[in-house]
Structure formats: C-alpha cells, structure tokens
Design goal:
With 155 residues, the chain is α+β, with helices and mostly antiparallel strands. It contains 2 helices and 4 strands, in the order H-H-E-E-E-E. The termini are far apart. This is Lipoprotein.
Length: 155
Amino acid sequence: MKQLIYIILVLLFMSCANKEMNKKYDFTTESHMKTSALEITKYELLSEKFNQYFDLLKLKATHPDFKDNIITQLQDLSQNGILEINQIEEATVQNIEVTNEIKIISDSIEKIKINYDLVTSKSTVKDSIYAYKTSSEIIIDGVTFPSLKIKFSKE
C-alpha cells in the first residue's frame, strides 16, 4: 500500500514539474504580444495627443477665463510655439492619419508627420503637423519602463 502511495506522489510531482516549463513558454509569448501591442499604441498615442492639443486650442479661444492654465498646458505640448488656427471655435479635426514619414533626429527623438482635415461649416482644409516623439527609459525598482513625450510643431 505504501509503495502505491509513493508511486502516485512521484507521478504527481513529475507532472507538476512539466507545468512550470509550459508557463515559461507562455510568458515569452505574452511578452512578445505586449511588445507588438506597444507599437500599435504609439500611433494611437500620437493621435490622442493631437486631439488633446486641438481641444486645448479650442478651449483657449472659447473660454478666456482659463487662458493661463490652458496656455501652460499648450506650451507643454508645443515644440516651438503655440499654433494659431483661424475660426477654431467652429472647427473640428477629422481623418487624423499618422504617416510613415519618420525622420530620426537623434537616438531618442523622432519627427513624425501627421495629416488631418480641418473642417468648418464653410470648408474642409487638408493640413499637416509634425510630432516630435522623445523616447526614454525609466528604471523603477530595477524594472525598465518606456517613457514617451510628444510635442507638436508646424515645422
């Protein structure tokens, strides 16, 4: 009877040992998926930041009470200076497209062209803006995390 229990225990331990190896394989597959998901979210981040920038420009024009706070936020998102858009109160941005025009300025800075349509009640104007993406790495408790900072400019 004892021999049967020992055999069952040995088989149980051996089967559990194989499960740990499968978990390691799943982890590498999952980390590969996270890396490709990170690439997708970079373009989504550029689009979201541009929408945020445009909304702040619109708020500055429609709510002068908050002008100082809005200008501070716009300066954080501007490379050279805050953009001025005519009739921004009634304008909307549509068809935001992050192009493949990427110019590498340095190891950590990329210049990316974004095309968009500026739609008003009277017209639709195709325009473009450049996003300067600054990449860096932050180390917290020995774990490295990517950090992205986006700034916009007409040049």
